[in-house]
Amino acid sequence: MALDNKIPQGSISSKWTDYKDHIKLVNPANKRNIDVIIVGTGLAGGAAAATLAELGYSVKAFCYQDSPRRAHSIAAQGGINAAKNYAGDGDSIYRLFYDTVKGGDYRAREANVHRLAEVSVNIIDQCVAQGVPLAREYGGLLDNRSFGGTQVSRTFYAKGQTGQQLLLGAYSAMNRQIGRGKIKMYNRHEMLDLVIVDGKARGIIARNLVTGEIERHSAHAVVIATGGYGNVFFLSTNAMGSNVTAAWKAHKRGAYFANPCYTQIHPTCIPVTGDHQSKLTLMSESLRNDGRIWVPKNLEDAQAIREGKKKPTDLAEEDRDYYLERRYPSFGNLVPRDVASRAAKERCDAGFGVNATGEAVYLDFAAAIDRYGKEQARIHHLDENDSKLVYDLGQKVVENKYGNLFQMYYKIVDEDPYKTPMMIYPAVHYTMGGVWVDYNLMTTVEGCYCIGEANFSDHGANRLGASALMQGLADGYFVLPYTIGDYLADDIRTGKISTDLPEFVEAENNVRSMIDHFMNNKGTHSVDYFHKKLGKIMWNKVGMARNEQGLNEAMDEIAALREDFYKNVKVSGIADSFNQELEKALRVADFLELGELFAKDALQREESCGGHFREEHQSVEGEAERDDENFSYVAAWEYKGNPREAVLHKEPLVYENIKMVTRSYK
Ligand SMILES: Cc1cc2nc3c(=O)[nH]c(=O)nc-3n(C[C@H](O)[C@H](O)[C@H](O)COP(=O)(O)OP(=O)(O)OC[C@H]3O[C@@H](n4cnc5c(N)ncnc54)[C@H](O)[C@@H]3O)c2cc1C
User: Fold this and answer.
1) CA–CA gap between residue 76 and residue 71 (Å, rounded)
2) CA distance 148 to 465
3) How remote is the CA of residue 242 from the centroid of ligand 1, in Å?
């Protein structure tokens, strides 16, 4: 099947505006006869459900938590970008578009990114109208801060709880429609298969996670909004439940999976402490606005710190290596995440790491506390030479900006980050890859759409900070509600889709036999045992740095692990009840397939770009080396019964409005 991305031709600034004026619409009188299933009610799905219901469609929405309010989106801390230019620092739609394409290392689709930049400004208005308490300046205007990979301040935020507040906005909008009967909400329901009738997505099979009942649900279109698959690494900053199952089932039913190997490893996370952990914690990128990243300049100091013989505060300025400021003077600590992560790995690999495992660098606020303290002293006509006073005043400012993040760090690490620098290390955080979608956000299965982190669409090989929320809400509030009409307009006379069709029976049997297998397996190991093993393979061989040998080994090891899993996994409890071990088994089964495709994708991409770093393709200075001549494409994989047999389809990336150059943040 050829990849038709449906991108309109013509000048980029008029693309989305013109395009949306010419797509088919559904007459209001007909909308109530059209059912749309939304799988996932995080920011993207929640926004889409509320908007489609507002437009008049009959929506059925599913999530596996007990409430949409608990979606992973709630974890988003730092902010959401928009090209409003409120800071008056020269921002524009073009700059946001340019930064995002460049940040993604020229592996994103130009037209999608431009559309994202265009609608970014509407998102803020929408959320403010909903009452989302975005931070404001003293004068009452919305405040902005900076995130990595940009030289303007365009990030809107709600302290360190931006995702939570935005999700509450979308959730409130959904609730209004639930109250009106326009959305039927299925909490604690997990989609386990996609049903295709006559080549079109017409429903899903879901398991009621409380009773264990297997249910059939039909609709005229299905929207997958199930978030990212970072938990294929076992340890990540994602919510524990984040998984690939819905996206993977769609893939197995014909939806191509794009760029699975593009993963974002976030530079500022609390380092791994040992094997007992099941989750990693992010320290928001917003901290890089004020925090300075460093390691000791001398190996002896690093070793002394690791052995507990020295403290970071014992080291004089000249004995510290602020390596990002040194290597990238124009962006400094605000280089994009992939660049910052690799630089941290490089220093730790060279022996300069600072915690017991040797895998940590410092994020230090001493300079910011001093700077802000002196400023406050001047403002209040106090003595700026009184170091205690300056410290107290500066700490207050830092606390106002990042207090909840500092508190979180203190609770986890038991060290006061106001007094001693935080220790951070890169961790898996976000997946740029996902289900392939065309410009309308439709997958290669007709009538099956994919939005938010679950699709591949806008971030190329690396996502800039604060742009996932922007994309999720752009897709949910402003793009899908238009584009889905183009497809549904042809369905106004179709009538209800029966769940008695043989395709529903087949899909349900498929799910039942999987569940039967796990419940009757006489295995000896827990699901986590296999998931941890998968995570180790992924991190060691498909993680921050990859090479041909490691990737080949990873594919073999994952295939063998999958076989072992089916033979030896033990799932306790019963199927007809609340059973989290069974839920995990069904999810890990899909991770074990995705992991192999992930490695295969990384193997074929013989270049380094964004979050994908192939050791064979780097400059003498250790910077990523792209190969635009041969790899300027989206890799979209077609399922063929086994991840190893997947067939590669290439969607060429054509840049008409941006010149591809080597990314430089120097
Ligand atoms: C710690 C952290 C901080 C972050 N901070 C920021 C930030 O400051 N700014 C930013 O832009 N981005 C940030 N991100 C990224 C951002 O939070 C996510 O990309 C975004 O929230 C994803 O939203 P989503 O709606 O696509 O998916 P999610 O919020 O993950 O929602 C997925 C939904 O799908 C449902 N679901 C999943 N599988 C199934 C299934 N099989 N059946 C039924 N339902 C299912 C879930 O129940 C849930 O409702 C952060 C990420 C992390 C991990």
Assistant:
1) 10
2) 6
3) 8
Per-residue pLDDT at 9 exceeds 70 = no
19-72 pLDDT, tens per residue? 888 889 999 889 999 999 999 999 999 999 999 999 999 999 999 999 999 999
Confidence class for position 1, pLDDT limits 50, 70, 90: low
- How far apart are alpha carbons 528 and 571 in whole angstroms? 11
Give dist(CA 568, CA 523) in Å, integer. Answer: 4
Q: Is the pLDDT of residue 270 over 70?
A: yes
**Cα 47 to ligand 1 centroid, rounded to whole Å:** 12
Q: What is the largest CA-CA distance in the chain?
A: 81
d(CA 220, CA 26): 13
How far is the CA of 555 from the CAs of 366, 560, 567, 568, 592, in angstroms? Answer: 45, 9, 19, 20, 10
- Going from the C-alpha of 290 to that of each of 286, 326, 357, 420, the distances in angstroms are 8, 16, 26, 15
Q: Could you identify the atom of ligand 1 that is nearest to the CA of residue 41?
A: 49
- Per-residue burial over 296-313, b = 16 or more CB atoms within 10 Å of its CB, e = otherwise: bbeeebbbbbbeeebebe
Cα dihedral 505, 511, 513, 518, rounded to 10, equals -170
68: which DSSP letter? G
Strand partners, 38: 61, 223
- Residue 184 pLDDT greater than 80, yes or no: yes
Q: Quick check: helix, strand or coil at residue 484?
A: helix
Positive or negative CA dihedral for 646, 651, 652, 658?
negative
User: Where on the phi/psi map is residue 56: left (φ > 0), alpha (ψ -120 to 50), or beta?
Assistant: left
Q: 74, 208, 453: which to mutate for ligand 1, most atoms within 8 A of CB?
A: 453
Q: How far apart are the first and last CA of the chain?
A: 42
Q: Which atom of ligand 1 is nearest to the CA of 453?
A: 26
Region 642-652 average pLDDT? 96
* Catalytically active residues, by annotation: 337
Atom of ligand 1 minimally distant from the CA of 191: 42
Cβ–ligand 1 contact at 123 (below 6 Å)? no
Q: Which of 14-18, 263-267, 397-401, 546-550 has the lowest mean pLDDT?
A: 14-18
Assess whether pLDDT exceeds 80 at residue 2.
Answer: no
Nearest to 442 by CA among 490, 494, 489, 483: 483
Task: Specify the 3-state DSSP secondary structure of 580.
Answer: helix
What mean pLDDT comes out for the span 288-295? Answer: 94
Residues of the chain above pLDDT 90, percent: 86
pLDDT in tens, 421-465: 999 999 999 999 999 999 999 999 999 999 999 999 899 999 999
What one-letter code names the amino acid at 381? Answer: H
Mutate which of 37, 51, 73 for ligand 1? The one with the most ligand atoms within 8 Å of its CB, which is 73
The pLDDT value recorded for residue 10 is: 65
Cβ-in-10-Å burial (0-12, 13-18, 19+) of 346 comes to middle
Q: For residue 44, which atom of ligand 1 is closest to its CA?
A: 25
Does residue 165 line the site of ligand 1, with CB under 6 A?
no
Expressed in angstroms and rounded, the spacing between residue 62 Cα and the centre of ligand 1 is: 14
Please name the helix (run of DSSP H) or strand (run of DSSP E) that holds residue 202, with its range, or none: strand 200-208
**Model confidence at 255: pLDDT above 90:** yes
Do residues 441 and 451 lie in contact, with contact meaning Cβ atoms separated by under 8 Å?
Answer: yes
Q: DSSP class of residue 499?
A: T
Q: Is the CB of 77 under 6 A from ligand 1?
A: yes
